[in-house]
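Internal tracking record. Fields below are filled automatically when a chain is submitted to the structure queue. Please do not edit lines marked as system-generated. If the sequence contains nonstandard residues, flag them in the REMARKS field before resubmitting.
Queue: standard
Priority: normal
Entity type: single polypeptide chain
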Amino acid sequence: MNLLGKVAMWVELLSSGEGKQRVLIGRELAWRVRELESINTLTEVEFSVFSQFGDDGIIQWLIHRLPGISETFVEFGVGCYQEANTRFLLLNDNWSGLVMDSSKRNVDAIKRDRISVLYDLQSKCARVTAENVDQLMLEHGFEGDIGLLHIDIDGNDYWVWNGLTVVSPTIVIVEYNSVFGVERPITVPYDPNFTRGRYMNQYFGASLLAFCDLAQSKGYDFVGSNSAGNNAYFIRSDLAHGLKPLTAAEGYVVSKFVDSRDAKGRLNHLRGKQRLAALRGAPVVNTRTGAEEQL
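SYSTEM-GENERATED OUTPUT FOLLOWS
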């Protein structure tokens, strides 16, 4: 075995060992949050094993409040799947799933990962759009009831969920744009080739209110956001089992990310109202009227 082969072998072994330790710790945390019958906000049950923020804990608490939930998931925009909101579901709960990303390099890395052999995980390289989302689901055997759907594609998230008709998830997680505020039901205009990057990297996705309106039209209740202020949680109303529905204003959390970039792509760390100022004049669509407006 050459040097590169040996290095790759040791990296895999170390990663595997670390992953097992993280799952064991996460399992203990999951048992603890399951014991909480009622909570005031989703942030009380947060913990992170593989999720970027505390979403692993929120998901564990929710799935054990929803008896009979289908043990299947779909997640869009997973990168190389080392940091994702469904990886712990796969490894700890043995759910089956489909993950998609627009980067071939990322998807190739997922296919090389041992989890693609040891677990029922399908991966697909695709740019998910409002036009192809249903077909992508059907091609991979997902139709009707599924347990969890997570949409995080930094752009057409609202339009993709709006266009999705062939699956009926119990839990839907969507990334909202906190910088858009809580008062306006707005989204970026639909462009199947949308890429994040304009307006200092702050121009993407939709407001929480736009998602709450869409969720209600599809028969979902909004039950809260994570503490990072980027992921919103929706539960199918007929399966909510007493989970308290919230208004957008009640569940809105302001994000504190400082991921803005200047014209040369360098981080410039805009904070607070500076982020909204960077968006002045940007076109958005009012999802209630269909009219194009400006920020």
